[in-house]
Every structure is written in structure tokens, then in C-alpha cells.
């Protein structure tokens, strides 16, 4: 009897070990557990995420969100839908594994297009809210859901209205296409625009779209800008992370914005190779912008005394943006982080030019994000076309 118990304990430990090992790579434990009954919570679409769900009865559900792997910064992503046979109120609690804090306020949508922040309570590290469920699907997510297909549709629209071409730059670890959109002028100089290295940083994506659209607008100013500078836009560099609803990493569990020095990940490696090929052909990387999100609106820049050309160029640009928007304070945070593997440092160290990390606040008003992006793109074009000496303050 004792021996049997020992064997059972041993087998149970093995099962536990195996299941723990599986959970380290984005394996859901019982994500589908609430996909049954008269009220259902379901995470079955691209970019959805719900690692555990417990139906406590009485239309009360407790969801647990887990990171793809650790260590990781606390940016818990969740996205799921709720549907009920009959109209009824549902009580949802979201808790984050590892006793971590929620970063994002819950957003709600009926159509995955229009989203608003949903009324909620924060109880310690738990997020609680009620949802009026019915047979009409309701989506709940940490931020607006912008999946891989969204980028494909967006690029299609861009190609209808401007002389850009989308093509495949390479493939992610799981074989998803990484797209690049290019505009070619009468030029050998390139402005590089990157996005979505960190999947949940949706406000960065919401800034990238209007920023790029302004650069690609059909007006004489933008036309002459695009004659003078080529554009390389890679709006979605982490399609695996987006599809899996990851908090931060790619499918290998690696932060792509720490990989711009070792290039161990296929996503960063292929961009690096493409840029190296351009340079080998006699082309020049002139400037780069990488779109992200954080707690507040901030522009991480390289210091003016860093060994790059046109050392005051970014200061001139962002100073001009600040003047253009009297009600918005442009916060510039210069920093030099050698060996850290962030993209802006990569551009400066490899091509001796400025680059910035363009960060929008997680909860910054969505219309404001658009206005800032439009103005940022216009002032960028003005600064790059002005003919001013950017080596002087
Ligand atoms: Zn980021």
C-alpha cells in the first residue's frame, strides 16, 4: 500500500513537472473550461488570451492570465469573448499569475472595431467588472485588438491610395510573413519605421498608422519628401507574439527589443540583414522610428553628444513638434544604453544616425494619439526638408 502510494506520488510529480514545463511556453491550462453552458467565455480568435477560466456558478467567472515565459515585465494581455443564450449579467474577475499588477484597463467592443474602456473596479491586484451578456458576442480585451490580418488590410488600403508596395521581408519563427511596405523616391536615403515588437503595446500601433499615412499622403509636400527619402515600414515585426496574445516576447520567449545586438531571433536578424544589404548596395540609413507604448507619452532619443550625424536633428524635430502643439508637452528622454539591444541604439551604433523610440501612453486619448502622430509626421518632413544645419543647435 505504502509502495503504491509512493509510486502514485512519484507519477503525480512527473505529471506536475510536465505540465509546469508546458506552461512556460504559452500553453493554456484550461482556457476552454468556460466554453460550455448557457454563458460562455471563449478565447478562440487570433490574439485572444485567457490562460485559465473557472466558472464559479451564478454567472461568476474568474480568469487567470499567465505570461508566455519569465522573467518578463508586467504587461498582462487578455482578450476573450462572452456570449450567453439569454440576456444576463456576468461577473468577471481577472487575476494575473505571479501576483503581478494589471497594466491595462479593460476595453469592450461588439464588433472588434469600436472599443471603449469598460467600467471596472480594481481590488488589490484583481480586476473586476460586470458585463451584460447576450447572444450578441461581446469582446473584452486589455487594449483594442489589432491582429495580423489588420495589418494586411491596412497595407492593402495604403497601396490603393499611394505609390507604395508591400512585400514579404521574411518569416517569423513560426513561419508567419513579416511584411515590409516601401516607398521609393529619387533617393538612396532611407527612413525606417518599425512597430509592434511588443504585442500588447497597441497605442504605439495606433500612432504608427496615422504617422505613416501622413508621410504617404497625396499632397505636394509629402510627395517631395518621398522623392527625397525612401521609406521602409515594418509595422508588425512580431506576428507570432501578436497571434499568441503574448505579453512581450516572440515565439521563442525573447524580447525582440533587446535582440538588436546579438540577432539571435529570426525577426530582428532578417531586418538587420535587409538593412545591411541596402548599405552594401550604396544606400544609406538616414533615420529610424520604433513605435511602442508605456505609462506616458515619451520620446526616447539618443543624446546630442552621441557620435551620430546631424546631432541636433531630433532635438530640432521634436522641438518643432512641441511648438506646433501648445497643449501637448513633448517629453524627450535622451539615453545611451550600450549592449542593451534596443533598436534605437542599434541604428545609431551601426549607421551613425539618430533613431528614437516613440512611446504613447497606454491610456492616452485615442484621438490625441492620432493628432500627435499627424503633427509628428508633418514636422519630421519639415525638419528633414528644411535644409537647416542640424549639426548646430
Ligand atoms: Zn515596447
Question: How would you characterize this protein structure?
Answer:
The chain is of the alpha/beta class and 393 residues long. It is 31% helix and 26% strand. The protein has helices at residues 2-23, 148-161, 202-215, 220-228, 239-244, 266-280, 313-324, 343-351, 366-385, and strands spanning 39-42, 52-57, 60-65, 79-84, 88-96, 107-109, 116-117, 121-123, 126-133, 138-141, 165-171, 177-183, 189-195, 230-234, 284-294, 298-301, 332-334, 355-361. A hairpin with a 2-residue loop joins strand 2 (52-57) and strand 3. The chain is elongated. The N and C termini lie far apart (83 Å). Bound molecules: zinc ion.
In short:
The chain has 393 residues and is of the alpha/beta class.
Subunit arrangement of the protein? single chain
CATH architecture annotation name of the largest domain? 3-Layer(aba) Sandwich
Count of runs of 4 or more consecutive helical residues: 9
Number of domains: 2
The molecules bound to the chains, other than polymers, are: zinc ion
**From N to C, what is the helix and strand string?**
HEEEEEEEEEEHEEEHHEHHEEHEHEH
Q: Specify the helix fraction band.
A: 25-40%
Q: Average pLDDT across residues? A: 93
Radius of gyration: 23 Å
For the largest beta-sheet, the strand count, sense and barrel status come to:
8 strands, mixed
CATH fold category name of the largest domain: Aminopeptidase
CATH class of the largest domain: Alpha Beta
Query: Structural class from helices and strands?
Result: alpha/beta
Strand content: 25-35%
DSSP strand count:
18
- The CATH superfamily of the largest domain is known as Zn peptidases
Overall geometric form: elongated
